[in-house]
Amino acid sequence: MRQARRTPPAATAGVWHVETADDRAVLKVVHNGGDEGRWPARADETDPYYWRREPLAYLSGAIDAFGVPAVRACVERPDGSVALWLEDCGEPAVTRGPDELGAIAKRLGVAQAQPVASEPWLAPGFHREYLRLHGIADDCARLDELPQALCHNDFHPGNVLADGSVIDWAYCGPGAVGLDAGVLVVDGIADEVVAPDEADEAVDAVWSGYTAGLGRDDEAVRRGFLEGARRLRWLPRGRKPAWDAALDLIDRLASGA
User: Fold this and answer.
1) How far apart are CA 153 and CA 242, in angstroms?
2) Band of residue 1 on the pLDDT scale cut at 50, 70, 90
3) Alpha-carbon span 172 to 150, nearest angstrom
4) What DSSP assignment string belongs to the chain?
5) Do 161 and 87 meet the contact criterion of CB atoms below 8 Å apart?
6) pLDDT tens-place string over residues 116-158
7) What is the pTM of this model?
Protein backbone atom coordinates (compact mmCIF):
# COMPACT_ATOMS: atom_id res chain seq x y z
CA MET A 1 0.00 0.00 0.00
CA ARG A 2 1.43 3.39 -1.05
CA GLN A 3 0.01 6.70 0.15
CA ALA A 4 -0.65 9.06 -2.75
CA ARG A 5 -1.23 12.32 -0.90
CA ARG A 6 0.10 13.35 2.50
CA THR A 7 -1.49 16.79 2.90
CA PRO A 8 -5.11 16.29 1.84
CA PRO A 9 -7.99 18.76 2.21
CA ALA A 10 -10.29 18.35 5.21
CA ALA A 11 -12.75 16.07 3.39
CA THR A 12 -10.00 13.55 2.56
CA ALA A 13 -8.64 11.27 5.27
CA GLY A 14 -6.14 9.78 2.84
CA VAL A 15 -5.51 8.33 -0.62
CA TRP A 16 -3.59 5.09 -1.19
CA HIS A 17 -2.57 2.91 -4.13
CA VAL A 18 -3.26 -0.69 -3.07
CA GLU A 19 -1.73 -3.65 -4.92
CA THR A 20 -2.00 -7.41 -4.60
CA ALA A 21 -0.33 -10.10 -6.66
CA ASP A 22 -2.96 -9.83 -9.40
CA ASP A 23 -4.92 -6.63 -8.82
CA ARG A 24 -4.58 -2.98 -7.92
CA ALA A 25 -6.91 -0.14 -6.96
CA VAL A 26 -6.99 3.31 -5.40
CA LEU A 27 -8.49 3.70 -1.94
CA LYS A 28 -9.74 7.16 -1.04
CA VAL A 29 -11.25 7.64 2.40
CA VAL A 30 -13.44 10.72 2.80
CA HIS A 31 -14.62 12.12 6.10
CA ASN A 32 -15.81 15.32 7.74
CA GLY A 33 -12.44 16.64 8.79
CA GLY A 34 -13.67 20.00 10.02
CA ASP A 35 -14.55 23.49 8.83
CA GLU A 36 -11.05 24.95 9.00
CA GLY A 37 -8.59 26.34 6.48
CA ARG A 38 -8.93 27.01 2.79
CA TRP A 39 -10.21 23.53 1.92
CA PRO A 40 -12.76 22.76 4.65
CA ALA A 41 -15.27 19.91 4.99
CA ARG A 42 -18.88 20.73 5.83
CA ALA A 43 -21.97 18.72 6.72
CA ASP A 44 -24.61 20.61 4.68
CA GLU A 45 -25.18 18.91 1.31
CA THR A 46 -26.05 22.28 -0.26
CA ASP A 47 -22.65 23.73 0.71
CA PRO A 48 -19.93 23.80 -1.99
CA TYR A 49 -17.59 22.09 0.50
CA TYR A 50 -19.96 19.24 1.45
CA TRP A 51 -17.72 16.37 2.53
CA ARG A 52 -19.68 13.47 1.01
CA ARG A 53 -19.99 14.93 -2.48
CA GLU A 54 -17.27 12.89 -4.17
CA PRO A 55 -18.66 9.41 -3.51
CA LEU A 56 -22.14 10.67 -4.43
CA ALA A 57 -20.81 12.07 -7.70
CA TYR A 58 -19.16 8.77 -8.65
CA LEU A 59 -22.16 6.62 -7.71
CA SER A 60 -24.74 8.86 -9.41
CA GLY A 61 -23.12 8.80 -12.83
CA ALA A 62 -23.35 12.60 -13.02
CA ILE A 63 -19.65 12.88 -13.89
CA ASP A 64 -19.33 9.94 -16.27
CA ALA A 65 -19.15 12.17 -19.38
CA PHE A 66 -15.83 13.59 -18.16
CA GLY A 67 -14.11 10.20 -18.14
CA VAL A 68 -13.56 9.00 -14.59
CA PRO A 69 -12.10 5.90 -12.92
CA ALA A 70 -14.59 3.09 -12.40
CA VAL A 71 -15.91 2.57 -8.88
CA ARG A 72 -14.85 -0.79 -7.50
CA ALA A 73 -16.70 -0.36 -4.18
CA CYS A 74 -18.07 2.32 -1.88
CA VAL A 75 -18.16 1.33 1.80
CA GLU A 76 -19.66 3.15 4.78
CA ARG A 77 -17.18 2.74 7.63
CA PRO A 78 -18.09 2.38 11.35
CA ASP A 79 -16.41 5.70 12.19
CA GLY A 80 -18.72 7.57 9.78
CA SER A 81 -16.18 7.94 6.99
CA VAL A 82 -16.62 6.50 3.48
CA ALA A 83 -14.10 4.24 1.73
CA LEU A 84 -14.17 4.84 -2.01
CA TRP A 85 -12.39 2.13 -3.98
CA LEU A 86 -11.56 3.21 -7.53
CA GLU A 87 -9.94 1.76 -10.60
CA ASP A 88 -6.23 2.60 -10.58
CA CYS A 89 -5.70 4.59 -13.78
CA GLY A 90 -2.13 5.60 -13.04
CA GLU A 91 -0.63 8.99 -12.29
CA PRO A 92 -0.87 12.44 -13.88
CA ALA A 93 1.87 13.46 -16.29
CA VAL A 94 4.71 15.39 -14.65
CA THR A 95 4.84 17.94 -17.47
CA ARG A 96 2.41 18.80 -20.22
CA GLY A 97 2.73 20.78 -23.42
CA PRO A 98 0.17 23.03 -25.12
CA ASP A 99 -1.11 20.34 -27.49
CA GLU A 100 -1.82 17.96 -24.63
CA LEU A 101 -3.63 20.69 -22.68
CA GLY A 102 -5.66 21.48 -25.77
CA ALA A 103 -6.76 17.84 -26.04
CA ILE A 104 -7.73 17.79 -22.35
CA ALA A 105 -9.67 21.02 -22.82
CA LYS A 106 -11.54 19.62 -25.81
CA ARG A 107 -12.73 16.62 -23.79
CA LEU A 108 -13.75 19.01 -21.02
CA GLY A 109 -15.77 21.10 -23.46
CA VAL A 110 -17.57 18.04 -24.83
CA ALA A 111 -18.52 16.99 -21.29
CA GLN A 112 -19.66 20.48 -20.30
CA ALA A 113 -21.89 20.75 -23.34
CA GLN A 114 -24.14 18.16 -21.67
CA PRO A 115 -27.08 19.18 -19.42
CA VAL A 116 -26.24 19.65 -15.75
CA ALA A 117 -27.63 16.90 -13.53
CA SER A 118 -30.14 18.04 -10.91
CA GLU A 119 -29.09 16.78 -7.48
CA PRO A 120 -29.37 18.61 -4.15
CA TRP A 121 -25.72 17.86 -3.36
CA LEU A 122 -24.54 19.44 -6.63
CA ALA A 123 -24.31 22.84 -5.02
CA PRO A 124 -23.58 26.08 -6.90
CA GLY A 125 -21.36 28.82 -5.55
CA PHE A 126 -17.99 27.08 -5.24
CA HIS A 127 -16.04 29.82 -7.04
CA ARG A 128 -17.46 32.52 -4.81
CA GLU A 129 -16.66 30.58 -1.63
CA TYR A 130 -13.19 29.64 -2.89
CA LEU A 131 -12.34 33.31 -3.40
CA ARG A 132 -13.69 34.23 0.02
CA LEU A 133 -11.60 31.54 1.71
CA HIS A 134 -8.53 32.88 -0.10
CA GLY A 135 -9.15 36.44 1.00
CA ILE A 136 -10.55 37.86 -2.24
CA ALA A 137 -13.68 40.00 -2.04
CA ASP A 138 -15.76 39.34 -5.15
CA ASP A 139 -19.52 38.75 -5.22
CA CYS A 140 -19.25 36.86 -8.57
CA ALA A 141 -22.72 38.09 -9.53
CA ARG A 142 -21.66 38.40 -13.16
CA LEU A 143 -20.79 34.69 -13.21
CA ASP A 144 -24.28 33.72 -12.07
CA GLU A 145 -25.62 35.39 -15.22
CA LEU A 146 -23.50 33.24 -17.55
CA PRO A 147 -24.55 29.90 -19.05
CA GLN A 148 -23.98 27.14 -16.50
CA ALA A 149 -22.24 23.79 -16.81
CA LEU A 150 -21.24 21.01 -14.46
CA CYS A 151 -17.85 22.21 -13.24
CA HIS A 152 -15.10 20.18 -11.62
CA ASN A 153 -13.99 23.33 -9.78
CA ASP A 154 -10.40 22.19 -9.25
CA PHE A 155 -9.48 21.31 -12.82
CA HIS A 156 -5.73 21.66 -12.62
CA PRO A 157 -3.51 19.30 -14.68
CA GLY A 158 -2.69 17.17 -11.64
CA ASN A 159 -6.32 16.07 -11.49
CA VAL A 160 -6.17 14.69 -15.05
CA LEU A 161 -4.31 11.40 -15.18
CA ALA A 162 -2.02 10.44 -18.04
CA ASP A 163 -4.75 8.22 -19.53
CA GLY A 164 -7.23 11.15 -19.52
CA SER A 165 -9.24 10.10 -16.47
CA VAL A 166 -10.35 13.00 -14.26
CA ILE A 167 -10.14 12.58 -10.48
CA ASP A 168 -10.90 14.52 -7.27
CA TRP A 169 -14.59 15.41 -7.62
CA ALA A 170 -15.19 16.72 -4.09
CA TYR A 171 -16.11 20.23 -5.27
CA CYS A 172 -18.10 19.61 -8.43
CA GLY A 173 -21.26 21.60 -9.04
CA PRO A 174 -22.93 24.06 -11.40
CA GLY A 175 -20.76 26.97 -12.48
CA ALA A 176 -20.10 29.27 -15.38
CA VAL A 177 -18.91 27.78 -18.66
CA GLY A 178 -15.23 28.45 -19.18
CA LEU A 179 -14.21 28.44 -15.50
CA ASP A 180 -12.56 25.01 -15.52
CA ALA A 181 -10.71 25.73 -18.76
CA GLY A 182 -9.22 28.92 -17.30
CA VAL A 183 -8.12 27.05 -14.18
CA LEU A 184 -6.45 24.37 -16.31
CA VAL A 185 -3.97 26.82 -17.83
CA VAL A 186 -3.03 29.07 -14.91
CA ASP A 187 -2.92 26.32 -12.27
CA GLY A 188 -0.74 24.36 -14.68
CA ILE A 189 1.77 27.21 -14.78
CA ALA A 190 1.68 27.72 -11.00
CA ASP A 191 2.12 23.99 -10.35
CA GLU A 192 5.08 23.79 -12.78
CA VAL A 193 3.33 21.29 -15.03
CA VAL A 194 3.35 23.76 -17.93
CA ALA A 195 6.56 25.63 -18.81
CA PRO A 196 6.25 29.43 -18.35
CA ASP A 197 7.61 30.08 -21.84
CA GLU A 198 4.72 28.04 -23.26
CA ALA A 199 2.03 29.91 -21.31
CA ASP A 200 0.59 31.95 -24.17
CA GLU A 201 0.67 28.99 -26.54
CA ALA A 202 -1.07 26.91 -23.87
CA VAL A 203 -3.82 29.54 -23.50
CA ASP A 204 -4.47 29.44 -27.25
CA ALA A 205 -4.50 25.63 -27.32
CA VAL A 206 -6.86 25.35 -24.35
CA TRP A 207 -9.22 28.00 -25.68
CA SER A 208 -9.34 26.41 -29.15
CA GLY A 209 -9.81 22.91 -27.78
CA TYR A 210 -12.38 23.89 -25.20
CA THR A 211 -14.59 25.96 -27.51
CA ALA A 212 -14.43 23.24 -30.19
CA GLY A 213 -15.63 20.65 -27.67
CA LEU A 214 -18.23 22.95 -26.15
CA GLY A 215 -19.56 23.97 -29.54
CA ARG A 216 -19.56 27.70 -28.81
CA ASP A 217 -17.05 30.54 -28.89
CA ASP A 218 -18.55 33.75 -27.57
CA GLU A 219 -18.17 36.50 -25.00
CA ALA A 220 -20.00 34.55 -22.27
CA VAL A 221 -17.51 31.68 -22.50
CA ARG A 222 -14.61 34.11 -22.62
CA ARG A 223 -15.78 35.82 -19.45
CA GLY A 224 -15.98 32.51 -17.62
CA PHE A 225 -12.56 31.48 -18.95
CA LEU A 226 -10.95 34.72 -17.77
CA GLU A 227 -12.52 34.43 -14.31
CA GLY A 228 -11.25 30.86 -13.98
CA ALA A 229 -7.78 31.99 -15.03
CA ARG A 230 -7.87 34.80 -12.45
CA ARG A 231 -8.64 32.36 -9.63
CA LEU A 232 -5.02 32.29 -8.48
CA ARG A 233 -4.62 36.06 -8.21
CA TRP A 234 -4.28 35.61 -4.44
CA LEU A 235 -0.81 34.08 -4.89
CA PRO A 236 1.93 36.25 -3.34
CA ARG A 237 4.62 37.51 -5.69
CA GLY A 238 8.27 36.77 -5.07
CA ARG A 239 7.80 33.36 -3.43
CA LYS A 240 8.25 31.07 -6.45
CA PRO A 241 9.14 31.77 -10.10
CA ALA A 242 6.22 29.62 -11.24
CA TRP A 243 3.79 31.67 -9.16
CA ASP A 244 5.17 34.89 -10.63
CA ALA A 245 4.77 33.42 -14.13
CA ALA A 246 1.14 32.51 -13.36
CA LEU A 247 0.45 36.03 -12.08
CA ASP A 248 2.10 37.52 -15.16
CA LEU A 249 -0.17 35.41 -17.35
CA ILE A 250 -3.23 36.53 -15.38
CA ASP A 251 -2.21 40.15 -15.94
CA ARG A 252 -1.79 39.60 -19.67
CA LEU A 253 -5.15 37.91 -19.97
CA ALA A 254 -6.89 40.64 -17.96
CA SER A 255 -5.37 43.34 -20.16
CA GLY A 256 -6.24 41.51 -23.35
CA ALA A 257 -2.58 41.36 -24.36
Assistant:
1) 21
2) very low
3) 7
4) -EEEESS--TTEEEEEEEE-SS-EEEEEEE----S-SSS--BS-TTSTTBTTHHHHHHHHTTTGGG--PPEEEEEE-TTS-EEEEEE----B-S---HHHHHHHHHHHHHHHTSPPP--TTS-S-HHHHHHHHTT-----HHHHTS-EEEE-S---GGGBBTTS-B---TT-EEEETTHHHHHHHHHHHHTTSS-GGGHHHHHHHHHHHHHHHHT--SHHHHHHHHHHHGGGGGSPTTS-HHHHHHHHHHHHHHHT-
5) no
6) 988 999 999 999 999 999 999 877 778 888 999 999 999 999 9
7) 0.94
Q: How far is CA 202 from CA 103, 147, 162, 199, in A?
A: 11, 24, 17, 5
DSSP β-ladder status, 2-5 and 24-30:
unpaired
Please name the residues in contact with 138: beta carbons below 8 A apart, sequence gap of 6 or more. Answer: 128, 131
Dist. CA 87–CA 89, nearest whole Å: 6
* Calpha distance 15→234 (Å, rounded): 28
State CA 118 to chain mean position distance: 20
Q: Is 252 exposed, middle or buried (0-12, 13-18, 19+ CB in 10 A)?
A: middle
195-251 tens-digit pLDDT? 999 999 999 999 999 999 999 999 999 999 999 999 999 999 999 999 999 999 999
Quote the mean pLDDT of the chain. Answer: 94
Strand blocks (E) in 63-112: 71-76, 82-87
Q: 153, 134 in Cβ contact below 8 A? A: no
